[in-house]
Amino acid sequence: MPGHDLPFSAAEYARRLDLVRKEMAARDLDVLFIEDPSNMAWLSGYDGWSFYVHQGVVVFHDAAPIWWGRHQDANGARRTVWMDDAHVLSYADHYIQSKHRHPMQDLAGMLRNRGYDTKRIGVELENYYFSAKAFLTLQAELPNATFEDATGLVNWQRAVKSDEELVFMRRAARISEKIIDGVFARVKPGMRKADLVADIYADAIRGLDDAWGDYPAIVPLLPSGADASAPHLTWDGRYMESGEATFFELSGCYRRYHAPLCRTVFLGTPPQHFLDAEKALADGLAAGLDAARAGNVAGDIARALAKELKAAGIERSARAGYPIGLSYPPDWGERTISIRDEDDTVLEPGMTFHFMPGLWMDGWGLEITESILIRDTGPAECLCNRPRELFVKD
Amino acid sequence: MPGHDLPFSAAEYARRLDLVRKEMAARDLDVLFIEDPSNMAWLSGYDGWSFYVHQGVVVFHDAAPIWWGRHQDANGARRTVWMDDAHVLSYADHYIQSKHRHPMQDLAGMLRNRGYDTKRIGVELENYYFSAKAFLTLQAELPNATFEDATGLVNWQRAVKSDEELVFMRRAARISEKIIDGVFARVKPGMRKADLVADIYADAIRGLDDAWGDYPAIVPLLPSGADASAPHLTWDGRYMESGEATFFELSGCYRRYHAPLCRTVFLGTPPQHFLDAEKALADGLAAGLDAARAGNVAGDIARALAKELKAAGIERSARAGYPIGLSYPPDWGERTISIRDEDDTVLEPGMTFHFMPGLWMDGWGLEITESILIRDTGPAECLCNRPRELFVKD
């Protein structure tokens, strides 16, 4: 192990590598190349904002994993991964955004030199950072290899959190609470939205005395009024207005671990349809939390929620949540399970989700959500502890 | 045109579409599908944090462009793009992160229904958001189409900035100056790094009275001491120490336009090798700025810089800059031109670059950079106005 501090114990990294190798064996894979930065960090400890160029972790059965990336980022790898320096390999800078060269030519050369060019290689075909061109280049360079789609292979191993991971997620949850408390304390009519976001960021990054804040994988989202009918608009320089609702979709982040928390503020007196939706959502959340038990399936949560919403006349087609944990931009979800009717994944103790039944209606929006942990027995635990209600302020 | 405010004039969007269509014609493309969020925003006005799911803008010669994306994000599209609502199309939520379906099946259906399934279709093979699986799915769904690699087609049209764009970039530059001034005012030994970052974010987002700050496409980078040998490590909860240098790689952002500015702080008395490197870098930047003239090529800037660095005994292999402008995470570069020896792209008035000769040395790092504009005549203009020197503070 290197001289620097790692966020997790050696046993924890060994546990992760073991899980991945078992799944590789089950799929008869000799080599796994992962480019997803969340998977890279989870397996190797690597942490840096360098995922805008090609890099990855290569997992073998018969040798330690290799961090592979841009030459100038190898310094960062040596300072963050648990593997020794002999397992940090890099490619020259002239491969970067070149018309003539592609970094995958270098990766292919490395695999060829080590005798893996006729093996079965897993790659993440559906991933932000493994481009179509990367795959085509790797195929062309290694014509005798067999490529298998290993999208989500590592992500699925991340679903059940260890105790060490839950410590981080609970710290993230404390930061989430701090952010939302700050919003409620400051928000008022006439406040420029960008100023509110400046405070949100400051709270998120300052974190707590014993838990500095990392950058969340999604920026704060806080659309108002009719803009709140769209879930993903970012802020601007307009002013908070009386008579409008604004939802706040936020997460604290501790060492890349997230615990999202969404709440909605109404400035002024909310109309009845808003209060009705609030009640339906609170009932739906309570029913969903009760269904979020080990042994049930993800779809059970969605159905419990939908039943309460439907009773209040609300039909909702979007999924109602996703697994959370360690993440890099552009998403804090793990992209495996979805809380929706068709998902029959069995819930296991230690799984964590953002239970997220956002309502994006015609001309308005309402978000009240919870980050949840599936327990050994009983309903899910909410990682944050804030009232599940609309926040009304004059 | 829709009822909402657009960041640019109708003439500006028409100019952009015209440029893209001309290049499509030059490459004999009937259809262009762009998934890069920067290209989407530049062409259509679309702005939202929804690029973690598949979406895109489809450009035709014989019809207006189409925004295509997730159902819940169509509300955001209708509120941000210049095309009318008939040109906003969406797919159902059960395509999201599904084991059974892929959003590209929906896109293929749309293209088939409109008679483009036997045409020549350009796609961005090397892009964060167009996955390998997306390409394979599109190919399988449209077996009679011809796919061409259109990576960078739109990016290259963005290289020369319009006057309207330069107004935004100058606002971003004012925000960059404000951020770096704030760092210099606040930084001192014993300050927790996360607290410094909290203030950086607050300054960046608060922006100026007439220019609210948008989220930069890269988070603040500020490694200290030996960590500064690695260019892309993010912050932590440690404390600023005397006797160490910290570089600050930052950018203000105004409505997605960037003007990065990097400076280095030394707390205490810098050693001679640091002062020598500072002088070499200042000389190299001055020489590079003088070479950054319309009619010269990108490589001329790199060579002018390298000559000065070499005279001081510094060999640098990484590229020394890239074009900047409108960007979404994970990168604020445009991924076309590189300021390096082999790049013979002719510089044109209106091109903007981050001239970025970072020094990541053995055990320390130094960054002094400029965002620059190529002028009609004479050397480049620096968009920010701050001394090009090491900032020393006790």
From TrEMBL, chains A, B:
Record's keyword annotation contains Acyltransferase: no
Keyword Disulfide bond carried by entry: no
GO MF terms held by the record: hydrolase activity
InterPro entries attached to this UniProt entry: Creatin/AminoP/Spt16_N (IPR029149), Creatinase/aminopeptidase-like (IPR036005), Creatinase_N (IPR000587), Ectoine_EutD (IPR014335), Pept_M24 (IPR000994), Peptidase_M24B (IPR050659)
UniProt domain Creatinase N-terminal: residue ranges: 16-160
Domain Peptidase M24 per the UniProt entry, residue ranges: 169-375
Keyword terms: Hydrolase
Source organism superkingdom: Bacteria
Identification of the protein by name: Ectoine hydrolase DoeA
Organism: Roseibium aquae
Source organism phylogeny: Bacteria, Pseudomonadati, Pseudomonadota, Alphaproteobacteria, Hyphomicrobiales
